[in-house]
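Subject: Sanity check before I submit

Could someone independently write out the structure tokens for this chain? I want to compare against mine line by line before I put it in a report. The sequence has 308 residues.
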Amino acid sequence: MKRRIWIAAGVFGILLAAAGAGCGREEGSEASGGKLYFLNEAETQLVSEAYEVKATFREAKVQEYVEALDKEPENRGYKRLLPDNVALLDYSFGEAGQLILNFDANYSSLSGITEILIRAALVKTFCQIEGVDYVEFYVNGIPCMSGEVPVGLMRADDFIDENMYGQIANVSVFFANEDGTALLESHRQVSYSASISMEQLVIEQLLEGPVPEEAEAGMCPTMPQGTELIKISTKDGVCYVDLNEKFLERPEGLSEEVIVYSVVNSLVELPNINKVQFRIDGETRKAYQSVPLSELLERNLNLIETEN
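---
Independent answer below. Compare away.
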């Protein structure tokens, strides 16, 4: 019998919703009270703190919010919105009532749930200001892209609490045993956004690693620290997963087979995937130590730890 643990794991605290009314208000209707939006410690949902705006005019209010978001949250369980290596270079205003935020190139390193939540927090924060109906993101003066599509103008009600409107999926992911020589299966019930694929959802679960209950049961993370998903797609039963070079930095105590097949076995659990092709920073590599990465890899049942 496979060794299996059932976990309920929330992923996205935000769902991109259908279009609705803008976030602008009639002149003079804005109160001095507002909110600052941050991430929770696990970076799985948005949290907020009450904030009293002191400025009067639109430009001054934007600057006040920029400075407030750059500080540490009062609640120690919250995380500052932007990582230390990501900087807001400048901002400007468009004719359609949009606030244009221009970030440095490091913003492009944000991905998955973290980037979507940061984007949602900034939009919801700045759309509280009278005269800011939309927020638009730029990176080094170029429109921010989601894949090959510009993110475009966003408003506060484009982001809705997924606890009410999200989808639920059952996924299996494989982590290492305590010896780092075999795989243990974790079956998770996950809430997720329809804006991501099931393949991406599986990789994000691997990147998050075992939850405390799983760690107590002897499960250990398999993804090397700093590993990021660059791109993932599936065609004709083959999943093409592109990871950054950090994936090749094998953690001490884990075999390379366990690391590679934690990804392969997890993805092949999806009904539309039979094989996995790895790419590293967009390129096919010949091998990861003793594991041939240039080949199409199939499920490896021999690495799964079983119980008698």
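---
OP: Matches mine. For the report I'm noting this point. Residues 112-126 form the longest helix (15 residues).
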